[in-house]
Amino acid sequence: xxxxxxxxxxxxxxGNFTLAAEQSNISQSAISQQLxxxxxxxxxxxxxxxxxxxxxxxxxxxxxxxxxDLIREVDALVTRTQQVAKPNEAVLRVGYLQNFGSSAFxxxxxxxxxxxxxxxxKIYHGTHEHLYELLRDDKIDLAFNDQRRALSDDFIxxxxxTTEMVVAIGLTALxxxxxxxxxxxxxxLKNVLVIDESQRDTEEVYYREILGVxxxxxxxxxxxxxxxxxxxxxxxxxxxxxxxQAFNSDVTRLLKVxxxxxxxxxxxxxxxxxxxxxxxxxxxxxLLKGHF
Length: 292
Description:
Blueprint lengths: L1 H13 L2 H8 L3 H15 L4 E4 L2 E4 L1 H28 L5 E7 L5 H13 L4 E7 L1 H9 L5 E5 L8 E16 L9 E3 L7 E5 L5 H10 L7 E4 L2 H9 L3 E6 L11 E8 L2 E2 L1 E9 L5 H13 L1
Parallel strand pairs: 3-4, 3-5, 7-11, 8-9, 8-10
Antiparallel strand pairs: 1-2, 5-13, 6-10, 6-11, 6-13, 11-12
GO molecular function: DNA binding; DNA-binding transcription factor activity
InterPro entries: LysR_HTH_N, LysR_subst-bd, WH-like_DNA-bd_sf, WH_DNA-bd_sf
GO cellular component, one term: protein-DNA complex
């Protein structure tokens, strides 16, 4: 029945028995016979034949939609099985959000390479949009990223953690008795972004429209440069509360931050494509979730 399902999907997608037969490397009469046998086994009509054309019945549409899901699952199963059998040939490409800074990702990497030393683990980093593009274009297998867009059914969206955002700021930039600040009250200080200049426009839209930042922006190339700006009381950074260890407490402090009186929250996920759900992708995602 599995082979017949593949023939049926080819017929539906091409809309033509001849083209479907050519794609499947069998004759038109053979593919017609296979579809008739499939209908007999199911006891339902999948295709209503109308001379040389046809329409797909409601039952046929249901079988087509869920049949495609089954094909994907079988393909993924084959891939996972091959990866387990031949780990020396496996490559896993993962990307992480460069400004998050959590040790959980590093611990997941360390545990993975310890348990699977034969897998070639390649690590990339970038902004949200850069990681999204790498994942979309099949240049990485999994991305550890924040959530800035609606979750897509094209991806596995494994939620890892929800955290508050905090402000990293110079020790004397604000009065010492302040331990919480409204984001609008920082408009006279620069919001520091550790990104490539080419990513400025996209990041600024997110910070303005989602996080409520009213400040001018300053783009720097490294975390050290950012801390220089903070230490001189010229700016601040909005970061996850999980990122506290990334800042030198001798020159900066962390304050709770609110937008219209409410904490600014952010979700972080492991994302990977539905059709790329291999054994090592799922294993790494599991380790990452465990460390969070």
